[in-house]
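Need residues for this backbone.
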């Protein structure tokens, strides 16, 4: 057994678990879509980044129903892609994009720190070809 490959597999599975549980919990929460606009308003009011509050209020909140669906399915599909190990570039790119957005709305240091950890974990998974060890990427070579 290759210890580096096993470590990458475990990293990939952990990322998959985090994204899948986040997305599925939103999918099965009947109130998520209906309350998303209010949640975004509280995020806009609580963020330390005024440019992001303006962005939320001007572009995202007016289209909250659509962005709620994007959030749900983005998290679920990112989790599935990390689970399968393919397409890892797309999974990492979408995951990093979502974590950057979550970073800007986080109003506590622990939440921001967790998003930074997720960003670097996804970069590590992609840059070390985590999908090539027991993933679809290995079987497609």
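Answer:
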């Amino acid at each position: 057994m290759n210890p580096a490959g096993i470590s990458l597999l475990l990293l990939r599975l952990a990322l998959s678990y985090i994204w899948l549980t986040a997305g599925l919990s939103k999918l099965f929460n009947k109130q998520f879509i209906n309350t998303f606009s209010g949640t975004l308003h509280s995020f806009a009011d609580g963020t330390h980044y005024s440019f992001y509050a303006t962005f939320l209020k001007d572009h995202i909140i007016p289209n909250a129903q659509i962005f709620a669906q994007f959030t749900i399915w983005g998290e679920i599909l990112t989790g599935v892609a990390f689970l399968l190990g393919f397409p890892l570039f797309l999974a990492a790119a979408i995951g990093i994009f979502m974590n950057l957005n979550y970073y800007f709305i986080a109003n506590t240091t622990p939440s921001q720190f967790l998003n930074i950890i997720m960003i670097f974990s996804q970069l590590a998974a992609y840059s070390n070809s985590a999908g090539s060890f027991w993933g679809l990427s290995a079987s497609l070579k």
